[in-house]
Design brief:
Blueprint lengths: L5 H4 L12 H13 L5 E5 L6 H13 L13 H8 L5 E5 L6 H9 L11 E6 L6 H12 L5 E7 L7 H4 L3 E4 L5 H15 L5 H10 L4 H15 L5 H8 L4 H12 L3 H13 L4 H20 L10 H8 L2 H17 L6 H14 L22
Parallel strand pairs: 1-4, 1-5, 2-3, 3-4
Length: 376
């Protein structure tokens, strides 16, 4: 049997298996239980957050042989056919490849006919914003007053491109990006089930790389499993993603905490020798400074006393962190204006060193105003 990628293998089969989007699940569950299912729904959100999955589960709920329910059985013929993508009364349309009005008219010609097997004929139109203006106009009348046996489920990543006349005829649900912590927790469960070893930091890297998309995170996890060939480690995953290693950021933060100009320039030299992308280094530094600031305000977000974030969160006060963040943020903006990226990067670090406020907790380091040690 051929290998099935995790994103497909782990696609939720019911609402209980869905990660996140509780506000959507709750509304749809109440509608199903009360018999108040709308004739048209629009699911919006970034890629990989569950738009199509929720639509398919809703199609199961409406057509399950056990009756309309928020908990489809998953074992009847119709539930299995929907899961396998071969249910005749679930018509999935990729609007990105069928944008013409003739395609839409062909689709609507069959709306009047009763479903062949199920209780409802469900039209799932993905990336609906890609339809042409003429296609939207052709869809309007049917979308407003469809036959009782028809339900429309629309999905899009760009609702601003959907005409207001269409939006007004649908119940719209905005799906949220998933928090990195939520993604990392789910990935840990997946790897435990798959009997693959991992460390927490490696999953944090994958979760952040997913940028709120569970599907993207699972695709990256597939890549990481192949790359590591066994236990997932932060160093290996970081190398695969091309991210800046934490120990390199640690060298920069240690030098800033100690107001050690020589160490700071040595860390910059090491990065230059590796041909590092200085914009990526500054972006990674911004991410760590943000994590440190969050841990200072919300200690329960701390991932452990031994982590780099928690250790440096104790060595910088809140004011210093805010100032460092703004300096690095401006450094990213001004990098293109520097004579060369390395010069802009080094000047950003030296600015951060020079403008640390007096009284900052720098673990015994010289206070602001005193010359940094080893400055050149």
């Amino acid at each position: 049997m051929s290998y099935q990628v995790l994103a497909r293998k782990l696609r939720p089969a019911n609402f209980d298996a869905l990660v996140g989007q509780e506000h959507v699940v709750r509304a749809l569950t109440h509608a199903l239980e009360a018999g108040r299912v709308h004739h048209a729904y629009l699911f919006t959100g970034t890629r990989g957050v569950g738009k199509t999955t929720i639509a398919r589960v809703l199609a199961k709920c409406l057509n399950c042989e056990q009756g309309v329910s928020a908990k489809p059985c998953g074992t009847c013929g119709i539930c299995r056919e929907i899961a396998e993508g071969r249910f005749v009364d679930l018509i999935e349309v990729d609007a990105a490849s069928r944008t013409k009005v003739d395609d839409t008219r062909d689709l609507l010609d069959n709306v009047q006919y009763l479903p062949a097997r199920g209780r409802y004929k469900v039209y799932l139109i993905d990336e609906v914003h890609m339809l042409s203006a003429a296609s939207f106009n052709a869809l309007l009348k049917t979308l407003e007053e469809p036959p009782e046996h028809v339900k429309f489920l629309l999905a899009t990543t760009d609702p601003k491109k959907v005409p207001i006349t269409v939006l007004s005829r649908c119940l719209q649900f905005q799906l949220k990006n998933l928090l990195p912590e939520r993604i990392a927790s789910y990935l840990a469960d997946v790897l435990t089930t798959e009997e693959i070893g991992f460390d927490t930091e490696s999953l944090d890297l994958i979760a952040r790389a997913g940028r709120g998309s569970m599907r993207d995170a699972l695709s990256i996890l597939d890549q990481a499993i192949a790359f590591c060939g066994g236990t997932l480690t932060a160093d290996a995953v970081g190398e695969m993603l091309g991210t800046i290693e934490r120990r390199e950021l640690e060298s920069l933060l240690e030098a800033l905490a100690n107001a050690d100009g020589a160490a700071l320039m040595a860390a910059a030299d090491d990065l230059a020798e590796r041909a590092a992308d200085f914009r990526e280094v500054l972006a990674a530094l911004l991410s760590v400074l943000h994590e440190m600031a969050v841990v200072q305000v919300v200690p329960e977000r701390d991932r452990g006393s031994e982590s780099m974030v928690s250790r440096f969160a104790e060595r910088f006060d809140a004011q210093t962190l805010q100032l460092l963040y703004q300096i690095v943020l401006l450094g990213v903006r001004d990098l293109v204006l520097a004579p060369d990226p390395r010069t802009g990067f080094e000047m950003t670090l030296l600015r951060a060193l020079a403008f640390q406020p007096a009284g900052a907790d720098t673990d015994g380091a010289p206070t602001a105003g005193a010359p940094p040690t080893g400055a050149r």
